[in-house]
């Protein structure tokens, strides 16, 4: 059974930082496409960042230069380092995995507000 468990969300002031973690079980992240999506209130879910099995990364334009996706294969965990956070980054962030099928975590809330 595949499980993706996110952690690290919370409330932060504009300009602050958070690091999200996604601990995977049941799949090997080194063989998977891993990604972070987010969904703000009354908006569609959008891809934020992705990392392929070869380590190649991709980001939505609005987070380039501020967010970094990475993974630790020994811990089977994917991270999203978020710096210079803005109020428009407020959303529920979901971990995603694609390996023969697609899997989602339950989400973690990120709130950026003064």
Q: Would you mind describing this structure in some detail?
A:
- The protein has no helices and eleven strands.
- The strands form two sheets. Strands 2, 4, 5, 6, 9, 10 and 11 form a seven-stranded mixed β-sheet that branches. The protein has a four-stranded antiparallel β-sheet with strand order 1-3-8-7, with no helix packed on it.
- By secondary structure, the protein is mainly beta.
- The chain has strands spanning 3-7, 10-12, 18-25, 33-39, 46-51, 57-59, 67-72, 77-82, 91-99, 101-104, 108-112.
How is the biggest beta sheet arranged? 7 strands, mixed
Mean pLDDT: 97
Strand content: over 45%
How far do the termini sit from each other? 40 Å
* Low-confidence residue ranges: none
How much helix, percentage-wise, in residues? Answer: under 10%
Overall shape: globular
Could you tell me the number of beta strands? 11
Tell me briefly what this model is.
The chain has 114 residues and is mostly beta strands. Helix content is 0%, strand content 54%. The strands form 2 sheets. Strands 2, 4, 5, 6, 9, 10 and 11 form a 7-stranded mixed β-sheet that branches. A 4-stranded antiparallel β-sheet has the order 1-3-8-7, with no helix packed on it.
């Amino acid at each position: 059974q595949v499980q993706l468990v996110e952690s690290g969300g919370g409330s932060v002031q504009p300009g602050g930082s958070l690091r999200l973690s996604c601990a995977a079980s049941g799949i090997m992240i080194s063989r998977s496409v891993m990604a972070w999506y987010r969904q703000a209130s009354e908006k569609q879910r959008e891809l934020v960042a992705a990392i392929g099995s070869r380590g190649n990364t991709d980001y939505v334009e609005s987070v380039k230069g501020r967010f970094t996706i990475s993974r630790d294969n020994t811990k089977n965990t994917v991270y999203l380092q978020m710096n210079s956070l803005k109020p428009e980054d407020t959303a529920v962030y979901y971990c995603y995995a694609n390996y023969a099928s697609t899997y989602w975590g339950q989400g973690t809330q990120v709130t950026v507000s003064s």
